[in-house]
Every structure is written in C-alpha cells, then in structure tokens.
Specification:
Layout: E1 7-14, H1 17-25, E2 30-34, H2 48-59, E3 64-69, H3 75-91, E4 95-98, E5 112-115, H4 124-133, E6 137-139, H5 146-155, E7 161-168, H6 180-185, E8 202-205, E9 211-216, E10 223-225, H7 230-236, E11 238-243, H8 250-270, E12 275-276, E13 281-284, E14 298-299, E15 321-329, E16 334-338, E17 350-355, E18 358-369, E19 375-380, E20 395-400, H9 402-409, E21 413-426, E22 429-436, E23 441-447, E24 451-452, H10 456-467, E25 475-483, E26 488-489, H11 492-513, E27 533-534, H12 543-551, E28 556-557, E29 570-575, H13 579-582, H14 587-590, E30 605-609, E31 612-619, E32 624-629, H15 633-636
Length: 658
C-alpha cells in the first residue's frame, strides 16, 4: 500500500543512523538514509546493523525508513546491488529509492520502490510510466512549477505518491542530467561522487571576448525554501515533503525538521480532511530558525515562476544573517551597532564581513554591551591586523549563534504518542486499559485485594499521579479515568508495576502491528516508454537497464556518459537556470521594450575557469540552458567507473539487434 492520499509526509535526511533517530524525535514522518553502497552521496553510507536498529526505533512511531540505492550501476555491480536490496528488506527497511531501471529486471525482494530525483521526472508522461511499472512514490524535479505539478498529479495513477524537495541545497542542473564533474575529473554525479563544479567561480564572456561576469559563481544556486508554498504544494498534489541534506550534520536536521513539522502541523490543524503520516507529537527545547542553519540565501526556485535572483553568485558559503554595521575600530576589537535593538550577541558567535568580494570570518571571543542600546564591543579571537578592510561602515553578518547552537547540541526534542488510560476494578483486582492516538488498544491486569482507601479524596488523585508517570516511555497521557465502585487503596509499587506492564504491552502491540508497505505491481500489458530513442542522457549503464527499456518499446539505446563513448562536445549540464536571464540579456526580457526588442539575441556565451572553457547554449522554447563541453583525455582514457571490476567490457547497441 502507498501513502494514503490524505496523509502528508515530512521526509528528512540522515547521514547516520543517529541523525536518523534525531529526525524521528524532531517530527519526521519518514527518513531516508544511505546503505553500505550505491547511494548518490558517496561518503554517506551506513552499515545494515545500524539501519536495522533505526528501523526498529522509527517503526514504534509509525515512521518509515527509506534507503537510497540510487546510483547508476555497472554490470559487475548488479548482483551486489541485488544482494543489498535483500539485506535492506531483511533489516526492516520500508522502501528503496532507485535511479537505475536495471534493478527492476532483477530478483528484488517485495519492497516498495521509489523513483529517485535522479530519474529526472518533469513530465506527466514519464511520471505516469514510472507509476505504471511499479514505483509507489516518485520524486519530482526541483525545477517544476505548481501548474506542472498539477498536470503530473492528474496523469499518474492514484496509488502513486508525488514527492517534492522543499528545503536545502539546489543542484543547478536537472538531477541526473549533470556530467560536468565526470567530464572534468572522472567523478560521476550519477554515481554519488560529484565534485561540485557548479560551486566554482567562472568568468562569463560573449563571442567577442567581452566580459559579462568576472570570477562569479554563476552556476551556484541559492538554497531551496518552500515554507511559503507548502499549502499550494498540497493543493497541487504533493504528499511527501522532502528535506535535502544527507551530508548535513545533526543540528541542521534537527532545526529544519522541527521547522517544517510546525509548518505542516499548522496546515493539518486548519484542514481536518488531511492527516499526518506517523504518530506522536514533538516538543522542542529550542526555537526552530532555518535562517540560522547553513544556507546560501534562499529561493523558492521555479515553484511560483521564474525569478531573476535565484543565484548565489557572490559566494557559495554561508554568510548568515545581517546584524548591523561597524561604528568604530580599536586596536583590540571593534564596536558594532545592531540593526535590531532586541538582538543579543554572545561570546563565541561567528561573524563575517565582505572584503574584495570574499567573506572574512570573525570568531567573537568576548562580546560586551557598550551601555548604549543596540551597541556592542567585540573582541575577536583573531588579531585585528589579520582582519583586512574592517572599518567603520562595514556591514556584519552572523553565521553562528553560539547560544542557539548550544541548545541544538544537547538533547533538543522529545516525541510522545498520546494515550488514554482507564483504570477499572475487576473481580480479582484491577485492569488498566491503554488506547493510543493510532487506535492501538491493550489491557493489563493486576490481581490485588479490594481494600477501602482511608482517604477517599486523596486515593483517586494518587492513582492518577502514578498512572501519569510516562516520562521515560513513548507515551504522554491524554486522559486518565477511573471506574470503581468506591475508592480503593492500591500500593504505589503495584500501580507502577501495572503501568509498566501496560506500557510494554502497548509498545509491543505497536511494533507488532507495523505493516511494511508492499511492492507495487506493474500493470499488464507492460506500458510503453514515452520515447523511442534514448541518448546518453538516459543513463543506461548496464545490460539489465538496456533490457528494461527494450522491453518497454525503446528502439535505440545509447550508453550512459560514464561509458566514455561520447568523445565530442555534448551537453554536460542541462539547467533551467539561465545566465542570460540573470544578467538581463534574455530576448524574452527585451520583448516589448522600445529600442531594445530585437537587439538582444540568445547567442552562445562562454564559461572560463582556469584553462577550462565551456560553451553556454540557450534553448529558448523550453527556457533551458546547456553547458557544453567534452570529456578530458585522462578521464576518457581511464576505465569506465565501477566499484567492482568488470570481467568484460559492456557492449551497447544503438539499435535493437535483430
């Protein structure tokens, strides 16, 4: 069974199983994590024993665990990947997130499959096909707008869940359509080893050599933040709301998960026809604040239309929030006037300012108020002579709130499931019935003599106090009721033992009642893929993937870029971000402007980074930019990548053999 259509799922990342536990405690309905191999984050793998423990912990709250098995695979890797899929199933994992269609040709366990964002899902036809061949959940391209999402929702089967990224770092290219890292260094983004060339500084020139941008990070995007669009995304058909960040630390996961938990809960509060996808309620010991966690500035990207300010061109680093400006510089420090008189600075805060276009970091050693409201004297850890350009009038940001971060570094949330407790007398003693918010019900019994209480009024209060002591458990008391013919005396030790037995029984019932979602069956007859011919852009890297597409009607299948058969200039990156648009050089921007219309053309531009040069070509009909280049000779002359040596070279056929 897929996620019910009225459930909203908050899906959080986990670099490690410990971070996964924190995601659960801070409100995640599902967690995605890398296994021991074949995940699209090369250095974010985890042993299966730890994933199994995370599954047991999460399932008590009804939280699902997904494992990323979303790289493209060489022939030699198919069998290890198949074995890993079975290990995930045996460990209790609820779904596999995959990119390589070759996996669907293997003997996989009966585990749910989710189509990774690496599948580049941006059309109704492709989303429909993936739903028809057996994917329960599909991760849509980050570049889609609300109308495109609605179109996809209207096209896919009802049992196919739409998942969408709502927060975190943005790849400038369509996911699965970026090969620049492999072309440059042999590190394949499709195999989880991206070198992040998009975060490099580039100089942009036109055909005549005129410089349009000098040493700017023109391919670096701001970070995704869909806080303002959550309700609209719900209406468009999104049901799984995904946070990016399998490389991020625990503080990031805690903060961002807590933030979106609150936002989605507010939607659920106002819309009773919707429900959350797991049990329990989180309580926090800090105030969630997305702006205080690493980001490059924020954007809602293309969800509400194209905007000119989606890029983080000046720096891919986290500069933080503006807090004020320097008013005076001393030999041992400087004075700062806050832009917000209510702002409090503390020892250990991380500050920075910009000098010659680069951020200069400052660690605040001692921070003292000057006595004038909003004014502070800051003594940095660094000698003042090592802080170039720091002078009166310089704007200062804070990218590390030391006091706030201390709260996140401690236990910062607890998650409890509401439970109703009902104590009643029985012929031979007492029973305690527990009913939790998910509908699980159990009863525990206590054999004990009915002894009248000496203090009738105090007896009921004492019983309720002892029954309410659920602090070390999964549960929080919602209601406590007592049904007896008269107040009886029950020793505290007996009540505590009864409560503990009832809680243990309810926990076991919850865990035993967890039903893992089952693998979806593809439709018959097998659906036809929406394209007849596949180029290197389809990432076919093994014979099983080739067989999959051939079985679904594809007639010509080129090998993946990583196969090293594309030796000339090709599109190394396809992106909806447009450098021309960002620098006001787009022909569509000039449309209707007198004296300008017709003068601006979408001619190629060029990117330069050291000795490397790439061509920017512009396809204005779909409003896309292509970064064009060729694979470097040392990469071309090296074997195609595989974690397992190939026993024989893979043979590709441009057309189906007779």
């Amino acid at each position: 069974m897929s996620l019910p259509a009225h459930h909203l799922e908050l899906l959080s990342p986990a670099r490690t199983a410990d971070i996964g536990r924190e995601a659960v405690l801070h409100g995640a309905d599902a967690v995605y994590i890398g296994g021991p191999g074949f995940g699209a984050r090369h250095n974010a793998g985890n042993p299966m024993t730890e994933i199994a423990e995370l599954c047991s912990f999460a399932h008590r709250f009804g939280v699902r665990i997904f494992v990323t098995l979303n790289t493209i695979l060489s022939d030699a890797e198919l069998e290890p990947a198949r074995r890993l899929a079975w290990e995930c199933h045996d460990a209790g994992v609820d779904a596999l997130i995959v990119q390589d269609m070759g996996l669907l040709e293997l003997d996989l366990p009966p585990i749910q499959l989710h189509a990774s964002t690496q599948c580049d899902i941006r059309t109704p036809e492709k989303a429909r096909f993936l739903g028809d061949v057996g994917f329960s959940q599909v991760v849509l391209a980050r570049e889609l707008g609300l109308e495109q999402i609605r179109s996809i929702r209207g096209a896919v089967p009802a049992d196919t869940v739409l998942e969408f990224f709502i927060h975190g770092a943005l790849c400038v290219a369509y996911s699965g359509q970026c090969f620049i890292s492999h072309a440059h260094s042999g590190r394949s983004a499709n195999r989880g080893d991206c070198s992040q060339d998009c975060r490099m500084p580039y100089t942009v020139t036109d055909a005549k050599g005129a410089v349009i941008a000098y040493e700017q990070h023109v391919l670096s995007m701001k970070d995704n933040n869909q806080t303002a669009n959550l309700a609209a995304l719900v209406d468009a058909g999104i049901r799984s709301f995904k946070i990016e960040g399998r490389y991020k630390d625990a503080a990031y996961v805690k903060n961002i998960t807590a933030h979106y938990r609150r936002e989605l809960d507010a939607i659920l509060e106002s819309r009773p026809e919707l429900a959350r996808a797991s049990s329990g309620h989180s309580r926090y010991r800090f105030i969630p604040a997305p702006d205080k966690t690493f980001n490059r500035g924020t954007t809602d990207y293309f969800v509400t239309g194209r905007k000119p300010d989606i890029g983080a061109f000046e720096s891919p680093k986290f500069v933080g929030q503006p807090i004020g400006a320097v008013t005076r510089v001393h030999t041992d420090g400087f004075e700062l006037e806050s832009s917000d008189p209510a702002l409090v600075l503390t020892n250990g805060d991380g500050l920075n300012y910009r000098y010659k276009r680069e951020p200069i970091g400052i660690q605040a050693n001692v921070v003292k108020p000057t006595g004038q409201p909003g004014h502070w004297h800051i003594t940095p850890n660094e000698p003042m002579k090592e802080l170039p350009g720091l002078s009166a009038g310089i704007s200062v940001n804070r990218n590390s709130d030391h006091h706030w971060e201390l709260a996140l570094n401690r236990p910062s949330a607890e998650r409890r499931i509401d439970v109703d407790l009902h104590l009643a007398e029985s012929p031979d003693g007492f029973t305690l019935a527990l009913a939790d918010e998910s509908g699980y019900r159990i009863t525990a019994s206590l054999a004990h003599a009915h002894t009248p209480a000496r203090d009738a009024e105090r007896a009921e209060t004492a019983v309720k106090e002892h029954l309410a002591r659920l602090g070390g458990t999964l549960f929080a008391p919602r209601t406590i009721s007592i049904a007896w013919s008269r107040p009886w005396f029950i020793p505290a030790s007996a009540l505590n033992a009864l409560r503990r037995e009832a809680v243990a029984t309810l926990e076991a019932a919850r865990l035993g009642g967890w039903q893992r979602p089952v693998r979806k069956t593809g439709i018959q007859p097998v659906p036809t893929y929406p394209e007849l011919n596949l180029s290197y852009l389809s990432n076919v890297y093994n014979h099983a993937a080739r067989a999959f597409y051939a079985r679904h009607g594809v007639q010509a299948i080129a090998p993946a870029y990583e196969a090293h058969e594309e030796t000339g200039e090709v599109s190394l990156m396809i992106t909806r971000h447009c450098v021309r648009f960002s620098f006001n050089l787009c022909p569509k921007q000039a449309k209707g402007i007198k004296g300008v219309q017709g003068q601006v053309r979408a001619d190629p531009l060029y990117l330069h980074h050291g000795p490397d040069r790439y061509t920017l070509r512009f396809d204005c009909k779909p409003c896309e930019m292509h970064v064009v280049g060729r694979i470097k000779k040392p990469v071309l002359n090296s074997p195609p990548p595989s974690s397992v040596p190939l026993t024989a070279p893979l043979q590709f056929h441009r057309r189906r053999p007779d």
